[in-house]
Design a protein that fits this description.
About 30% of the residues lie in helices and about 15% in strands. It has about 80 residues and is of the alpha+beta class.
Length: about 80
């Protein structure tokens, strides 16, 4: 985890991690957030727009009206709270 993230964020992130199973083994977290999938906040509380080249390959992506939405709680937190 990046050093600049203080106790509040660390506790919240660890709480999220403790509640979910990740098919990617939390590589976003273990890489210090250097290995993040590409996603964008589109103003929907529990989803992000998946911008990956093959979003259909992601188990955390949901197809919806020609788009794919990410529903990973950790990725959503990182995007919405930490702007990552």
């Amino acid at each position: 985890m990046p050093k600049e993230l203080g106790g509040k964020y660390k506790k919240e992130i660890e709480n999220i991690i403790g509640k979910i199973q990740c098919p990617k083994s939390f590589r976003c977290y273990t890489s210090g957030f250097d290995d993040l999938c590409s996603a964008k906040d589109i103003g929907i509380e529990s989803f992000l727009l998946c911008l990956e080249e093959k979003p259909e390959d992601c188990k955390l992506s949901v197809p919806m009206q020609g788009l794919h939405l990410c529903h990973c709680p950790l990725r959503i937190y990182l995007c919405k709270k930490l702007r990552k």
